[in-house]
Specification:
With 384 residues, the protein is of the alpha/beta class. It is built from 16 helices and seven strands.
Amino acid sequence: MNYGLPYQGSKNRIAKRLVDALPAAPVLYDVFCGGCAVTHAAMFSGKYQHFVVNDRRGWLPAAFQKAIHGGYAHEDRWISREDFERLKDTDAYAALCFSFGNNCRTYMYARGLEPYKRALHCAIFWRDFAPWAALCPETADALAAGLAPIEDRKQRRIQAGHFIVESLKQQLSAGTLSPDILEKPIYRQIRKVKNTSESLQSLESLERLQSLESLESLERLERLQSLERLERLQSLQSLESLERLQSLESLESLERLERLQSLESLERLQSLESLQSLESLPGAPTAYSMDYREMSFDEPGIIYCDPPYMSVYAKGKDYGCEFDAEAFYSWCEAQKLPVYISEYQMPEERFVCVAEWDKVTTMAAKTTSHITERLWRPRCQLGI
């Protein structure tokens, strides 16, 4: 299951494990919420009654709230390079779904590839195949015939690459298509080949590539739209089969809740007779946009901090200003509520690691690395 907004540096991949490591409390304060992945996972956990999210970039928690209320359910705009530069600071859909690596700063597609991605967008979203036909007439008929009957947009996205590749394979096998056609930008992952046999071998590998199987922007939009399930979960109290259910306290019930991720709509919950303990999920979080030092913690709870990684972003510049690590350490130690911090490394004379996980990160295209994600507590809060 994906948690939170599609956002660079998101805790999506470890959000559930991280929440499992946090203690239950009345309130979860997510002080550097970013894409709200941890809060999203926590809302499914049953461990908290209320959530407070904060980020200096206030449009991030606002976008999360909009998503869980279904605000992106009918979103289908294509964002051009020019649109992106104009909208990236004010339009969360443009910034999150059309930026390179979810960095919200630079446009996703290279100039030569952009027209082809727009044509796929038109075909998948609106079943308008004219733009694709103008650019790739060799596969236009196959794409139109394959996608036109498919009602589900997600399935159109998944199947688009298959129809294109199969059409190219058939034409190359029949000798009716020159291998040179594979030099078009949309087929750029296929290395330049000299004959039909090599072309077919390259096409076999193409079927596994995401560039044709999906529009990255559409995958991200589906993430935004899937958050609406939190809003729908609040209506479960009206289901007759769930009227007597009390809480999410048992592990068995949590495991069953995780199965809900496969549902297209939570209205289908009526058929899940095995669900035994789901009265409702908490409502949307309270959102703030301020410096972490300005926050107040008036209700009992725990404080979770995912600050700019000093080891990755020089001096925390990704925070929107220079991040003072020493001031942050002192602030953590001064809090009365329990503080939990996500960081790769912290001063071990002042903080102790209470949990850790191995994680594969892909911060750049075709570049992956294995890192250890750690959860820390101030030693002074533990009396050590």
